[in-house]
Amino acid sequence: MNHNLYAAVTEYFTKAMPDAKTELKYGNPFQLLVAVRLSAQCTDKRVNMVTPALFERFPDAESLAKADFDEVIKYTKSISYPNSKTRDIIAAAQIIVEKFGGTLPTTVEELETLPGVGRKTANVVASVLYGAEVMPVDTHVFRVAARIGLTKNAKNPLQAEKQLEEGFDNNILGRAHHWLILHGRYVCTARNPKCKECGLTEICHYYLNAQQ
């Protein structure tokens, strides 16, 4: 574990992105869960175009639990995989009402019992809402961490998650998650990363190897 690299990355982003946070828009914990589920393999920008009307009609778990699939999908049809995501958010709402009294559960383990909620989604919700010391790993985090050199030979998101949780201080894991996501979204893009705009080139393994 290269602690000097983690320290340098932390120092850079603390100055460059002091207020890094989710770009998903939501008004209560349940709405964040829905937004995160809808954002899988879809952009936050697209989700934020869909959710205002969806949340106005179904603002909480109680209202969505009673919803008809055909009505809900009218709001979600423009995002990726609308059928499965629509079924998931309705089913999750029903379980939250039946099992948790209408209140979103607070632990990663309980969140993972909800339909459509995998480890990454549960970690995001627990981190953003409850300050859980976890590192959600999506495609941006996985890519950026590997390029910079924060992770080594991670074969899957879980391996990357464990390495990142070991490398970053526990109290900044939530912020670090957003640092890497936003950096991957706007600078360290999947195709044609914008290295000329990046402030990490002096320590980035990807960039340094490309210069050799």
How would you describe the overall organization of this protein?
The protein is mostly helical and 212 residues long. It folds into two domains: 3-20 and 134-210, Helix-hairpin-Helix base-excision DNA repair enzymes (C-terminal) (Endonuclease Iii, domain 2, Orthogonal Bundle), CATH 1.10.1670.10; 29-130, Orthogonal Bundle (Endonuclease III, domain 1). Helices cover 60% and strands 0% of the residues. The chain contains twelve helices and no strands. The two termini are 24 Å apart.
**H/E order of the elements?**
HHHHHHHHHHHH
User: Briefly, what CATH class of the largest domain?
Assistant: Mainly Alpha
Distance between the termini: 24 Å
Structural class: mainly alpha
Task: Assign an overall shape.
Answer: elongated
Reported for the largest beta sheet, the result is: none
What's the alpha carbon Rg, rounded to whole Å? 18 Å
What fold name goes in the CATH topology slot of the largest domain?
Answer: Endonuclease III, domain 1
